[in-house]
Amino acid sequence: MIDIDETLVSELISEQFPHWSALSLRAVPQQGWDNRTFCLGDDLSVRLPSAEAYAAAVEKEKRALEFLDGKLPVLVPGIVAVGAPSADYPLPWSVRRWLPGSTIDETSLIDRISLAVDLGSVLCALRSLPTDAGASAGQHSFYRGCHPSAYSDQVQIALEHLGDDVDAKRCREIWLAATTSAWESAPVWFHGDIATGNLLTDGGRLSAVIDFGTCGIGDPACDLVMAWTYFDDEARAAFRESVALDDATWQRAQGWALWKALATMSGQSSPDPGGTQERALATLLSTAS
Fold it and tell me: End-to-end alpha-carbon separation of the chain, Å?
């Protein structure tokens, strides 16, 4: 990971976009894993990949957001400038519009059923759009949008590592169901990281979706994982109905949720200090169909 702080970002702004150099700069309180984000004045933000593996998303996301802006029932962050690598920071980076609102994990004023329906509507709208501006799923999306079997090796390693700490038999049943079907329609848009930190709310309702760094064109099953990481039984049922996808896609989504939980718990993925993935696994094991 690259060490990114306010001093570095201030220097980048001053060197490449001096007309913004007088604006205040501060790190956002909750940082993501793939990128570091800073508020620039009242209306802009600066987003910098934390490692080379995430740098390819900058140009891809710019193209995608230019297309998606105004086409979804919620806001998306528009990129207003792309910064070049420098001697002190070797990757491309971006300046984008700051969107008002609080992330779901920052507010308690959420009706989960309403959120489930709103999110399902957004994902339906996303799937309906022309795909010319999107990139086919692959390494750039960390295989979101591909078949979940891309991570079969990590699932196997995790089950061996975790041993009796998980119900390996039930995990294998869910994984088998997830990997014995495939998306049979034309590839569609997917976001790739639908999670509480990437959904903004205003007045308790979904207002924006951010962080399209793993977006692309492919199988939308990866976008359904919040069914187990956040929603309760009633909201999960509302979400399943609202996304309007077939049972096989729902089972592949269960596979994506299973992989992420097992990979995290076995140390193969980013840390999970709040225990979200362990709770998601418990929910998945008790509810998977």
Answer: 39
